[in-house]
DNA sequence: CAGTTGATTTCGAAA
DNA sequence: TTTCGAAGTCAACTG
């Protein structure tokens, strides 16, 4: 990885055209050819960038550019398309290269897949007398996250990390479809999420859909053979 | 902006939990408190990060951490939530700070600038017998998007992506000014946009301003030497 | 000012 | 390989 702090102007042409006026910025050149142009603010998104795989060519400025005080020109080209990032460098204030090696990668925890696995294992969190039928129950309009057998019939569960209106709508469509199947009907809907927004709760309740808030930490604890219910 | 190359492990807890095993990475600390953890590959997204506003606390390792070879601990806390990024640093290979100043920001040449260029090239879309005088014609109250010569005199064009009342008002002010210039008068107004709202159309018509709806896709097609009118 | 939509989205998993 | 959906999405636009 090469890190350069430089006064530069940047222009990108590709799916759109964008331009950055002259200012001091960080230029990051990654091992796979990716180039990132960062300012000293904003979130994690660079001002401008080139996605890998890409290759960079450094050239001298032409007469006009040299006249304008430009010392070198970086041309970064994508290998898969004709996207191009052109960086006109006026002055370099810092330039260093570093060997980083390949990264072992991120381990994520607490995504929807985790929740689904845990709820399938702890299906009693839907209430007493529930048993798992299957996960990812296929329907023509997509898979139902969890299908269970409850005391009063079948239970369809829509699972989200954050429960929003969209999730309720999705579950409603599933329920309509599932209730046409005489082998399953009547099918009750359960909207389960770590956090359920008030609007979603209101809509769900209005449609006779039960809301269940899941405590991920607690479920994780119970899974690891350390039940919190004792 | 502070740039650190270090052997480190990182863990994030907040909306989810994520962990990065020990490896050499770039740590970027921005002026607004944002912290980015980058590897030497991937696109612009960091492996892990903290969004601004945030604050960082550097502490010594506890006994157990020191035993594991950790030399210092960075704790980055979000100010708006209880999200936390913890970086355990084993060894620092590079450490430098740089003053960047505030960035003037990105200029996107999106559809709007494109529209002006295309209409200038395809000025006949205003009607037969039109020829371009200039783009961005300067006036004391701002530049007129396009000035053209029409069959009945000068034509001033105000260009918008979405034609709203505001645009008509703007054009009206230009027209009043331009019509005082005996070299240009009489100046006809044309309000050109991809979409013109009914209210804007009514107002424009009432003021004798002609409305022209532009088909961006069609204009783009004609530009690429692949005219759709054949 | 809140809700909605697009992104040079990126990223991963499943088909 | 392609497609599809989620994301610690973010940022701009619209009402």
Automatic annotation (TrEMBL), chains A, B:
GO cellular component entries: cytoplasm
Subcellular localization: Cytoplasm
E.C. code: 3.1.-.-
Source organism superkingdom: Bacteria
Keywords assigned: Cytoplasm, DNA-binding, Endonuclease, Hydrolase, Nuclease
Coiled-coil spans in chain: none
The Endonuclease NucS C-terminal domain, residue ranges: 111-229
Matches recorded under InterPro entries: Endonuclease_NucS, NucS_C, NucS_N, NucS_N_sf, tRNA_endonuc-like_dom_sf
Molecular functions per Gene Ontology: DNA binding; single-stranded DNA endodeoxyribonuclease activity
Main subcellular location: cytoplasm
Stretches assigned to the Endonuclease NucS N-terminal PH-like domain: 2-104
Functional summary from the UniProt entry: Cleaves both 3' and 5' ssDNA extremities of branched DNA structures.
UniProt cross-references to PANTHER family, sorted A to Z: ENDONUCLEASE NUCS (PTHR38814)
Family: Belongs to the NucS endonuclease family.
Protein name in UniProt: Endonuclease NucS
């Amino acid at each position: 990885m090469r890190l350069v702090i430089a006064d530069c102007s940047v222009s990108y042409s590709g799916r759109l055209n964008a331009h950055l006026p002259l200012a001091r910025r960080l230029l990051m050149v990654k091992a796979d050819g990716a180039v990132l142009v960062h300012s000293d603010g904003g979130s994690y998104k660079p001002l401008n960038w080139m996605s890998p795989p890409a290759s960079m060519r450094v050239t001298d400025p032409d007469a006009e550019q040299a006249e304008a005080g430009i010392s070198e020109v970086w041309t970064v080209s994508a290998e898969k398309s004709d996207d191009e990032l052109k960086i006109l460098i006026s002055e370099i204030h810092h330039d260093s290269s570093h060997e980083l090696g390949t990264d072992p990668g991120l381990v994520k925890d607490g995504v929807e897949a985790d929740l689904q696995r845990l709820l399938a294992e702890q299906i009693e969190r839907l209430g007493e007398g529930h048993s798992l039928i299957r996960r990812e129950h296929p329907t023509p309009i997509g898979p139902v996250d969890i299908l269970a057998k409850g005391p009063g019939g079948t239970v369809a569960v829509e699972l989200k990390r954050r429960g929003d209106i969209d999730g309720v709508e999705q579950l409603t469509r599933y329920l309509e479809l599932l209730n046409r199947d005489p082998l399953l009907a009547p099918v009750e809907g359960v909207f389960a999420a770590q956090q359920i927004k008030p609007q979603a709760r209101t809509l769900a309740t209005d449609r006779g859909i039960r809301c269940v808030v899941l405590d991920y930490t607690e479920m994780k604890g119970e899974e690891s053979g350390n039940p919190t219910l004792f």
